[in-house]
TrEMBL record:
Keywords: Monooxygenase, Oxidoreductase. One of its GO terms (molecular function) is monooxygenase activity. This is Antibiotic biosynthesis monooxygenase. Residues 23-92 form the ABM domain. Pfam families: ABM.
Length: 123
């Protein structure tokens, strides 16, 4: 994804449920002045929250971006939601960077993973 060129090409691992997801789906504006710097700062901040588990990012060629944040519990997610610097970035995003977005929050009740590499190693 263009916002995360250094991001590994592997999903966040499956965790023992229950845990929470915040799924942020967006379409950005043409003028993204300051977006990359703010986005990098948000990633730095969220990683400091106890209970933060990881994040996946994807973007379609047409410009739809999806970011999924994983949190151990509702308290960790609430801490992220109410962080003052994050709130300021949200306001700037609505004013400058997003044409539209949706946010979905869900509690995960089942989680599993597959990796071709791990399957080959255990065969």
């Amino acid at each position: 994804m263009s916002d995360h060129p250094e991001a590994p090409v592997a999903p966040v691992p499956a965790f023992e449920p229950p845990y929470y997801l915040a799924v942020f789906t967006s379409v950005k504006t043409q003028d993204l002045s300051g977006y990359r710097e703010t986005n990098a700062r948000m990633e730095e901040l969220v990683q400091k929250i106890p209970g933060y588990l990881g994040m996946d990012h994807a973007q379609t060629p047409g410009g739809l971006s999806v970011t999924v944040g994983y949190f151990r519990d509702a308290d960790a997610l609430a801490e992220w939601r109410t962080d003052a610097e994050h709130r300021a970035a949200q306001r700037r995003g609505r004013a400058e960077w997003y044409e539209s977005y949706t946010l979905h929050v869900a509690k995960v009740e089942r989680s599993y993973a597959f990796s071709r590499t791990e399957s080959a190693e255990t065969a």
